Amino acid sequence: MENLYPIYLKLAGQLCLVVGGGKVAERKVGSLLECGARVRLVSPAVTSQIEEWANQGKLELRQRQYQTGDLEGAFLVFAATNQEKVNRRVSEECLSRNLAVNVVDDPPRCNFFVPSVIRRGKLSIAISTSGASPALAAKIRRQLERQFGPEYEEFMEILADLRRQVLAGEADIQQRKQIFSHLVESDILDLLRKKKYDQVKERIQNAYRGNRS
Known about the structure:
Blueprint: E1 15-19, H1 23-34, E2 38-42, H2 48-55, E3 60-62, E4 76-79, H3 84-96, E5 100-103, E6 116-120, E7 123-127, H4 134-147, H5 151-169, H6 173-184, H7 188-193, H8 197-212
Parallel strand pairs: 1-2, 1-4, 2-3, 4-5
Antiparallel strand pairs: 6-7
Helix pairs in contact: 5-6, 6-8
């Protein structure tokens, strides 16, 4: 298989179709909703969680068998049924329309794969084996989860806030780079782990004022 091109998609407001109503489909829907996607789900039977989301108006539920018209307006598609024939049909119809489609546990019928992801606020780390071994991707994710703990979420919030301040108040590009580099190379992450917030504040002030002076 050719190398895959890694990419992050903005799904807010985009219509995503999920065909299937079991636990796998439920996980796909949950991830899509987290990204602000509009979700259309087609399946004769669904899990209680999917039904709850539908009742809450979080997704459009078409509780019946898949039909070609369900693809109308879709940005990307997941085929997650336990029926190989249905999954194959969804894949073929998507590919003929140049739609992005992922068929669960059937790499040859996909034109995109969903990586195993670690999220720490604004930080996300994706691991992909190009569909060759989801189990290995999951193992690597668990290893990285221990390395990149919850303090990274706090650090990302600090960096994002300071970045806005620096971009608004510092015109010199080299000065900006020095400030950001100083912060990233500092011991702030270790201080966040130890919840030494006064020292964190001190490091931030030093990075900003010191590089501006």
